[in-house]
Known about the structure:
The protein has helices at 147-157, 195-202, 258-279; strands at 17-19, 28-32, 35-36, 43-44, 48-49, 53-54, 58-61, 100-102, 108-111, 129-133, 140-145, 161-173, 179-185, 188-194, 216-222, 230-235, 238-253. Strands 1, 2, 7, 9, 10, 12, 15 and 17 form an eight-stranded antiparallel beta sheet that branches. Strands 8-11-16-13-14 form a five-stranded antiparallel beta sheet. By secondary structure, the chain is α+β, with helices and mostly antiparallel strands. It is globular, with a radius of gyration of 22 Å.
Amino acid sequence: MKRFPLVTKSLLFSVVLVFSVSKQSTAASISFGGANASDGSGLTSSFMDPINGGLSDYFIETFDIATGDPLYPGSTNYTVSGFENECAVNSVNNGPIGVNISANSSEIAVRKGSVTNVAAAPANDTTCYGYATNNGQGTATISFDYTNLLDYYSSLYGSSTQLGITYLGFYWGSVDVYNDFYFYSGGSLVSSITGAALLSQLGGSSGNQTSPDSNAYVNIAFSIAEQFDTLVINTSDIAGEFDNIVIGLSTREIPVSAPGATLILLFASVMIASRRVRKK
């Protein structure tokens, strides 16, 4: 993960959807579209580019050692043998903005290139990317927990400010109907997006490795009240590929509570009364 100076990018296309989870109010606005990445990784967020940077308070995971923070080297625990000098999970490090990843080591991997019946690089992505695989049975689950990052930045603002992740973007390669993304806050489901829903909206075919209708950059905007702290990726087959994961932070001032407002009003009344006594 890292943060960069300002740069702007143009959206290629956008189809806006609004998803809600059962018994919950609308939690997220989801659109499909992105910007051409400058490092040859296909598509990235319009807010953040792997090489040229982007808006402050946005962070990117590229899975490439070259774009990581040299002060906080990433982890090669999930890197496929032979790519250790090129690929890493940069956000898994000892820095203050490290991200916790929970997964079976046989169900998550980082590599370059495509291998038949293993993983296919997202369209036009010649760099490192991540993928989930169930190895032919059951469901593979990968969890990206951003709690440490949120705690670190929350400590910089204090108790009067609420901070949260209100944006997530990721390049979803060769979308399949068996790949799903879920978003949690404090253990509660906030929203989700399925491969079937995405393909339905874009008119793509499951598993197509080259079509722009099956290789899309996904943008998800959350309200500050319904922001998430954990991303969970599920796949029930081979495989779910992704790259250029971008998150964005937002803050808002916490309104003064009713008891607090009453005390302020009472204090103001006492001060006014005191001034009137003095005048007499």
